[in-house]
Amino acid sequence: MTARGRLFAIVDEAPISLVGQHDLPDKWFLVARDAFNGVLLWKVPIRRWGWREYKDTWFNLRPGDIPLNIQKRLVAVGDTVYATLGYQAPVSEIDARSGQILKTYAGTERTNEILCLDGTLVLSVLSGEGVKVMAVDAASGTQR
Q1: How many CA atoms lie within 13 A of 110 on its CB side?
Q2: pTM higher than 0.70 for the full model?
Q3: Is the pLDDT of residue 12 over 60?
């Protein structure tokens, strides 16, 4: 994701592998880098994000094991980033310049997709066995 000369990504900074089957810990972060030289600007830790949140083991990977919309939980608009800072966490608004969490939107837990259109966050939210669409005013946090 990119906006105003910054690159944003959700990355795992844990070791990538060891010989054999090892249950390595995750170290997930929302990271911002300068888009022109790659310099790290800031990073925010993400708790409860990796494969442990949606399957029992990393081994025996099967089609469909990785959530379809996991990459659609990060949006950058100007100097603002919207993301879920956990697999079932609510949507947070983050200052793209500093990485400071500005607000967290109540009632947006289990969001699996974020869109932003004209100041409105359009969210796909898991609800029971289905999915509901929710519109949230980005400035006030009120649901529409």
Answers
A1: 12
A2: yes
A3: yes
